[in-house]
């Protein structure tokens, strides 16, 4: 296989971010992973950066730098989600504390420097948490924009939110950052709840991962078993939606997904619907499209790809 993307993964591990990282680590023949940047989200930054290092060590990877980024949203106070991810943010993983070092420097500077050094259209940004680091890099150095091929993000929802009735967590936590990203003028692919809630980790899909019988699959099974509990109880589904690995799967096999190129606006004004992604699916406002909103997935194909890539780590 040849390299499909030169990519920076920006994340807030969180169990689903961790599975996304491991899926990416099993795909290095197709993904040139330049670095992992971490942001406050599911849990505070001191834990998201620790968790990214714990998972990277599980994969036995020593040549991909892990950076700490922004410790809070641009304008709002940080909102975290320990009630879903546990106090550590990675409950169920069965992993030791991190021993690998954090890379020197701030994540935003790493994103800026890496993009500036790249050719036009070379860099893909793959955020799976609040968009604070991505937005701050764009604001700090707009010259990175032509270097960005596309921003493939997990976040948003056309329909119901998961954090408020209106908003999905990543966008809710930092709606102002999301506004900067969706208005930046570079191609955005939005993998929101409309598609991730069609990627359900059923018992059969979880068993297929367990049958790999490796330290990676054991940790993933433990994380997903913990992480699924909240969603199973809340939504009454047979498993939890697997949000962040959808970003990696899109990078690897975009044909597993489909959606529509439409205009997306972010509500940054109303406390009632703060962080809502207002998706003009039927082009009612006649506004120029600024994102490809994904609403369909080949879920069996996604889980087969995920399991196959986890087996490689
Ligand atoms: O709403 C789900 C998203 O918020 C996922 O990325 C999860 O990890 C949290 O960051
Ligand atoms: Ca996340």
Could you characterize the architecture of this molecule?
- The protein contains twelve helices and eleven strands.
- Helix 1 (15-25) runs parallel beside helix 2, helix 1 packs antiparallel against helix 10 (215-235) and helix 1 (15-25) packs across helix 12 (299-310).
- The strands form two sheets. Strands 3-2-1-4-5-6-11-9-10 form a nine-stranded mixed beta sheet, with helices on both faces.
- The protein has one domain (5-310): Alpha-Beta Complex (Inosine-uridine Nucleoside N-ribohydrolase, Chain A), CATH 3.90.245.
- Helices cover 36% and strands 19% of the residues.
- It has helices spanning 15-25, 45-58, 82-85, 107-116, 132-140, 169-173, 175-182, 193-196, 203-210, 215-235, 245-252, 299-310; strands spanning 5-11, 31-38, 66-68, 123-127, 148-154, 188-191, 200-201, 240-241, 257-266, 277-280, 291-297.
- Alpha-D-ribofuranose (RIB) is lined by residues 12, 14, 16-17, 41-42, 128-129, 154, 162, 168-170, 243-244.
Listing every helix as H and every strand as E from the N terminus to the C terminus, the arrangement reads EHEHEHHEHEHHEHEHHEHEEEH
Which CATH-level-2 architecture?
Alpha-Beta Complex
**Helical run tally:** 12
List low-pLDDT spans.
none
Radius of gyration: 18 Å
* CATH uppermost class: Alpha Beta
What's the average pLDDT?
A: 97
Cofactors and ligands: alpha-D-ribofuranose, calcium ion
Total number of strands: 11
Briefly note the CATH topology name: Inosine-uridine Nucleoside N-ribohydrolase, Chain A
- Report how far the terminal alpha carbons are from each other: 17 Å
Total domains, how many?
1
């Amino acid at each position: 296989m040849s390299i499909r993307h030169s990519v920076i993964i920006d994340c807030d591990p969180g169990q689903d971010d961790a599975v996304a990282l491991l899926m990416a680590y099993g795909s290095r023949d197709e993904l040139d992973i330049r670095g992992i940047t971490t942001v406050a989200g599911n849990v505070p930054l001191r834990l998201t950066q620790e968790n990214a290092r714990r998972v990277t060590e599980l994969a036995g990877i020593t040549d991909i730098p892990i950076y700490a980024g922004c410790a809070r949203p641009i304008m709002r106070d940080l909102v975290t989600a320990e009630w879903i991810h546990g106090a550590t943010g990675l409950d169920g993983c069965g992993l030791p504390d991190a021993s690998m070092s954090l890379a020197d420097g701030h994540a935003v500077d790493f994103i800026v420097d890496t993009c500036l050094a790249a050719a036009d259209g070379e860099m893909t940004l793959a955020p799976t948490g609040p968009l604070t680091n991505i937005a701050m890099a764009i604001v700090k150095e707009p010259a990175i924009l032509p270097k960005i091929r596309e921003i493939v993000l997990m976040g948003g929802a056309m329909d119901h939110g998961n954090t408020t009735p209106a908003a999905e967590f990543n966008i809710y936590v930092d709606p102002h950052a999301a506004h900067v990203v969706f208005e930046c003028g570079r191609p955005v692919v939005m993998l929101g709840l409309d598609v991730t809630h069609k990627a359900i980790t059923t018992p059969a899909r979880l068993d297929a991962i367990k049958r790999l019988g490796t330290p990676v699959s054991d940790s993933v099974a433990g994380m997903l078993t913990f992480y699924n509990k909240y969603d199973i109880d809340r939504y009454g589904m047979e498993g939890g939606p697997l949000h962040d690995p959808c970003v990696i799967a899109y990078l690897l096999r975009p044909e597993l997904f489909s959606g529509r190129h439409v205009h997306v606006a972010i509500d940054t004004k109303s406390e009632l619907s703060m962080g809502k992604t207002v998706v003009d699916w039927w082009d009612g406002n006649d506004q120029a499209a600024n994102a490809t909103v994904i609403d369909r997935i080949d879920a069996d194909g996604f889980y087969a790809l995920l399991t196959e890539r986890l087996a490689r780590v």
